[in-house]
Amino acid sequence: MNTQELRSFIRDLPKAELHLHIEGTLEADMIFALAERNKVRLPYADIESLNRAYQFTDLQSFLDLYYAGAAVLQTEQDFHDMTWAYLQRAAADGVVHAEIMFDPQTHTSRGVAIETVFAGLASAMRQGHKELGISSSLIFSFLRHLSEAEAFATLEQALPLRGQYDDLWLSVGLDSSENGNPPEKFQKVFAHCKELGFRRVAHAGEEGPASYVRDALDLLQAERIDHGVRSEEDPILMQRLRQEQIPLTVCPLSNLKLCVVPDLKQHNLKRLLEQGLCVTVNSDDPAYFGGYILDNYVATAQALGLSKEQLVQLAANSMAARF
Ligand code: HPA
Ligand SMILES: [Zn+2]
What we know:
Blueprint: H1 3-11, E1 15-21, H2 28-38, H3 47-52, H4 59-70, H5 76-92, E2 95-102, H6 104-108, H7 114-132, E3 135-143, H8 148-158, E4 169-175, H9 187-195, E5 199-204, H10 210-219, E6 224-227, H11 235-244, E7 248-250, H12 252-257, H13 269-274, E8 279-281, H14 286-289, H15 293-304, H16 308-320
Parallel strand pairs: 1-2, 2-3, 3-4, 4-5, 5-6, 6-7, 7-8
Hypoxanthine binds next to helix 4.
């Protein structure tokens, strides 16, 4: 298949996107447009110089820019516009269902009300269901560089809104700087979320060791692992992931841009798939990493020589792994 045929083959497969940070869909031109609309000063002269800054050496070098970019989000309309733009792109890529992560603490810490964040995300998601036929839900993600007490406080702030958004807010997650912020730090808040009936995911084994993946499963009762590519370093964990079919939401272009792998040809996605793990393909922060979900599938298929059957399997895994 040439690239065009490959793209249209993958586009036509019904897919779910399970690892997507909505703040990571803010394209440089939208950052500039929102900065102007909200009178926020940016430390970049123009869109091109912002785009040129997207040269990352590791997760933290990306996170610094990503949190700075999110500062342009102020109003309900801003959260709506960002989410609507993402849903249109996802629908065009053949995504039929999206589980969208957001970082409430990134916004509440700047004085944006949690009500504003939920209202903007939700109106776009409901519109996406009606007008694009794409279903979606929210993953309320705790920032792991902050304390567990702060995670509890944010959760308490948001819980009164749960009734209003119980069709959308199904899950909680854990993201931000992995190394030095192990799963055990959030054991109590995840246990509380489980009691409240939330589904659970956690980033683990992106930069952190395989033991963080195991601890996310055992200590946080995570039902899916975001990234998880370093699981391969622990054969016992690999056996468990296969036996229990615990989904890994892998993000190949993210791994490339954040130097988790030196080259897409060296990515272990195909090996993980061939060992029978429930691997899925996702875009993570597409505005920063150079591609949406279809770009991730195509680049990975070409770099690793994935067969049609393997592409069908990846898409089917994503549909099976949705909450
Ligand atoms: O890839 C990621 N890892 C951890 N935190 C994140 N927040 C946005 N993207 C990421
Ligand atoms: Zn992520």
